[in-house]
Amino acid sequence: MQIQLVTGDSQVQIPAVSGDIKLTLVRKGTPGKLTFTAFQDGVLTLTEGDPVALTVEGTPVFYGFVFTKKRGKSGLVEVTVYDQIRYLKATDTVNFENWTASQLLQAKAADFGVQLGEVADTGYVIPAYGETDIPILDAVYDALDETLAATGELYVLYDNFGRLCLQTPDAMQTNLLIEAGTAEDFDYETSIDENTYNKIKLTFENKDEGVRSVYIAQDSSNIAQWGVLQYHEDLSSNEGAQGKADALLSYYNRKTRKLQIQNAAGDPSVRAGSTVGVYLELDDMTIQNYMMVEEVTHTFSLDKHVMDLTLIGGDFVG
Fold first, then answer.
1. Are the beta carbons of 47 and 7 closer than 8 angstroms?
2. pLDDT tens, position by position, 291-305
3. Domain span holding position 8
4. Which has fewest Cβ within 10 Å: 64, 73, 179, 198?
């Protein structure tokens, strides 16, 4: 693998790296993060804001910008680099009517100088949204969450080597297969403690008519098994309210299952949000399908590339 630094005066440098290079990608809410330690040899010039590119055997893998440097007497400098999603953590007032999540992303990318790649049309029109002093990234995910609740369609926001993209997991499918022989170890967890709801209650207050409408979707059999696990939300509009309640129940009315893979053989094409094939025999089920990568940490050393994965999909939900 090779790291290239492009300094403010457009000079390309290839730093001498000490130890491992780590690249961590998370599906939601966090920018991609590259960390490495370089020798501060008197030749290397490194300034906050400098672009950094990581390539593996000639394949572009990551592009970001220096945000943090940490130095000591050893002559080494620890460098933290984030991709463009970091710039969407800027706060702003966000108000719009009748926009899709795609349109919100495109508008805010233009405002903050973020370069866009392929942006899928999310389709669902959000009637109204208004927040003050909110991180732009949170507003985008609010819009994506509302789209998911209304349509059942999940979208992934990610940086593809300097171009911010928005795609469905199906569009990010890889050819990788995870099985017992390709992973050093794994942890498998089932739970109803987080993100599991068997009753959905949505309410809408019509202030003009003084009427409060309630929309319920529930699974009586799971309520008998688990007790009442309720999700409640006040709606700003009752348009499609019952359909939204039904969609939320369909998504959340299940045990969450989380599969963590340690030290799998590395594949630089794997990013958070992409899908990988999995075949594993577990104690209560056999997984033989595609799962989505919730989080991946790539570790590159001189002669080895491994990755730790958190996988979700089907009954595996985040």
1. yes
2. 899 999 999 988 889
3. 2-82
4. 73
